[in-house]
């Protein structure tokens, strides 16, 4: 954390220049495990740009964005202000996973007509609840002179306060006046003050300024010639990052008073945010996104093959892992890498059936014994069931998920027109997944990618498609040996240790957290910031809070730079198949 | 006609029963011949798409003969009863030129946009949106998109490459959107414009005033997104207007009862998908009958279909890769089982529109439907030998009952045909090897 402080201002930029250049040279010289390729062009491009930028004395920042509020951000924002009992059963249009995160998709997603309709419907549902007879007394800051007529002052007070919060910045007087006028007009037409207010609130909730987070910029006095986010945009970015909701009054006031403009002031606010119980919401959201848990919504298991996978299991599996994340990384402040080896977790009755343990109703903390082979979150039902087929396990899907979600590497898609004749031979008798995949890898075209995914996926074969432990498949003992980037192991415990020690593991979290924080795909010129954050993360023994703080205080978080898009991949017929593109060189 | 209990009939439809009872437009809205509206305007022509995943098994899908005199092979037996309502196109190609061959993407992208994408993003809006901009802008919904795959992400309709139209996946929620309290029932006895809706519309103008400020700070790409937002608000305003004016009666419009919560089980078991497909199809058909939209999109399954068969351990997509070819049959029998369920789905979809009478014919007579998939031969995930299906006469512009061999030409030709039939006057469609100005003339009148 001390490192971060030093990096503010011009002085900091000079310190970073030397470090970054060295770090990049180091990254380029790293000897990588066989079969793993770094996207070399990105390193070269980033370092060249970085050196260029540093020579000019500038700070490399992140792009200013126009982000759509996600479903959960909308719900969190509304419920924080109006109360958790406001029922919001809504799903906005699904976002496209971009650079590893759904939230990054929100900065490019368009808005279909159906989406606007959804916004209107949910606005109507929320407004009706807020102004309902049983809530209006507590949620309104004033009482109208008459329930049956317009009341200019009370409408202005309510709509002013609400819109300042929902717009995440003060609403202009002229614009507020329009909403107040509409409220009054409707109140008069309907002979109902509250009905008028309700319709005006619907309008506020439908505002593009509410549903889009439009970041604004201003000249940066600390870095002449550069732009930074304006105070309210910075407050929004901080709040969406750490709380996954709009800024509260304290944060907005800090922005309005200029507190976020100073190093000390911003650090104080960030500390306050990290100490808030709302941090848990933000951290859950970050990991839910990073782990691809949105797929739980559509996950289904064959009830005949997996009768112990009950309807509640999917929701509970997701919750179990998020509870483990919060417990390990926030409550117990453990090393991020330990998440992949810890035997401490929580179980619910639906999960207890799969894990073969007994538990009373509700959630309970447990520690699996070593012989249960449940070390780390890769051995939890969430990872195992999500990356399986409805009817059976999949070493390939699990290996791919480990590479892509946890290590930020990209596994190429299957090649075209694969000859499956070896696997399809009716005379062959594959008893286990290993037999089947070994036959599949006999085809050199398939071998390329399957070598990247299968050796670690097969180590998880002791768990069936629903995540239950097993020692055999159709009567044949399961061989759970495997390897990951040059480390061999004989069982899943070995895989957990190998993942824990994999150099790409912490860098992947840094990359995802940075992308999540800045609300979009990581631009190529962000590499210097990532290198610095990686170093910082290691220096504080991989503590999550420290990482979040370092990102929130980093110049790149608040300085605005134009994005540098990734170059289109070269289209040649001779692209090596044996390729894992590491998005994030350590 | 008056003695028929429409409510019962339509409730039957919603429950998936086969109904062939006519529900004509009220005669007062038709001309003397019953083939046009009384004011001389032609009956509106509507457009529909229908998607199934994972192609087919060529030797039991492709009819041996072309033209009208062909027999239905095993895999498309389900289409035999509707042969006079459909055309079967085979041996089409999705050319990918120097773009990568992207399994499960290139195929349908070429079908819907005429462009083989160079990355994971489409090259343009999809054809249903182009057509909707021509024929459905004034409807309550410009397009409606639904899926039987229980997942909002299973959509093949895009307003632009970054803006999918999310699929309706729950019959309960879809019914509420279509026929809930905001439904302007064309056959309602009493009509009173709601002062609440009037106020809502008025508030909207204050919201729209904000677009200018945002546009001023947005870059070019973001301005496109803001434009979409603004267009959406304008459409919302139009929806409010529709709620404020008395709609013309439509005899065929009678939405029946809402499905129950218990009807919407998630999951990809084929029996659930079939049930969901029927319910969503019935709702789409009723939405068309009520003239709520003139463009509908339905998908039976996702590209890598996860449909499962009772007692068989491989879902559809896995089976295409792993099922052995039966040496006697010469194809993958379990994969074919899944494809046959898809074909039954298409037959149901077509029949749902044929069940609604309109004038002296049916809605299907005034409709053009294109069914497409992501691949040709399922086993190889091929982008050649791709089949397509069409249905409906598009107001007399299209002939049916044919099997057409596309002879390896681009499947974009079918889409180009649809654009022309639907009145989108473009000289060509698609790019590079998929570019075409050659419709499937054999099926055009």
Descriptive report:
The complex is a heterodimer of chains A (586) and B (445). In chain A, 51% of the residues lie in helices and 6% in strands. With 586 residues, chain A is mainly alpha-helical. In chain A, helix 8 (152-166) runs parallel beside helix 10 (193-205), helix 14 runs antiparallel to helix 26 (544-553) and helix 24 (504-518) crosses helix 26. Chain B has 445 residues and is α/β, with parallel strands linked by helices. Chain B is 32% helix and 11% strand. In chain B, 56% of the residues are buried. At the A-B interface, helix 6, helix 9, helix 10 and helix 11 of A face strand 5, helix 6, helix 7, helix 8 and helix 10 of B.
Total count of domains of chain A: 3
CATH topology of the largest domain in chain B: Alkaline Phosphatase, subunit A
Largest interface: A-B, 62 and 79 residues
CATH architecture identity of the largest domain in chain B: 3-Layer(aba) Sandwich
> Roughly what is the average pLDDT of chain A, rounded to an integer?
86
Shape of chain B: globular
Number of domains of chain B: 2
**Number of E strands of chain B:** 11
Number of helices of chain A: 27
Please name the defining characteristics of this protein:
heterodimer, A: mainly alpha, three-stranded mixed beta sheet, three-stranded antiparallel beta sheet, disordered N terminus, disordered C terminus, B: 445 residues, alpha/beta, Alkaline Phosphatase, subunit A, 2 domains, 12 helices, 32% helix, globular
Topology at a glance:
The complex is a heterodimer of chains A (586) and B (445).
Chain A: H1 2-6, H2 9-29, E1 37-38, H3 40-55, E2 66-68, H4 71-82, H5 102-105, H6 113-130, H7 133-139, H8 152-166, H9 173-190, H10 193-205, H11 208-211, E3 212-214, E4 217-219, E5 227-229, H12 231-242, H13 249-256, H14 263-275, H15 279-290, H16 313-331, E6 344-347, H17 349-355, E7 364-367, H18 381-386, H19 395-406, E8 409-410, H20 421-424, H21 433-441, H22 444-457, E9 472-473, E10 476-477, E11 482-484, E12 487-489, H23 492-501, H24 504-518, H25 527-539, H26 544-553, H27 555-558, E13 559-560, E14 581-582
Parallel strand pairs in A: 1-14
Antiparallel strand pairs in A: 2-3, 4-5, 5-13, 6-7, 8-14, 9-10, 11-12
Helix pairs in contact in A: 2-3, 2-25, 6-10, 8-9, 8-10, 9-10, 12-13, 14-26, 15-16, 19-22, 24-25, 24-26
Chain B: H1 6-14, E1 46-52, H2 58-61, E2 86-92, H3 106-113, H4 127-135, E3 144-147, E4 158-160, E5 163-164, H5 171-179, H6 195-208, H7 211-217, H8 220-244, H9 270-289, E6 295-299, H10 316-322, H11 333-354, E7 357-358, E8 361-362, E9 367-373, E10 386-391, E11 403-405, H12 412-421
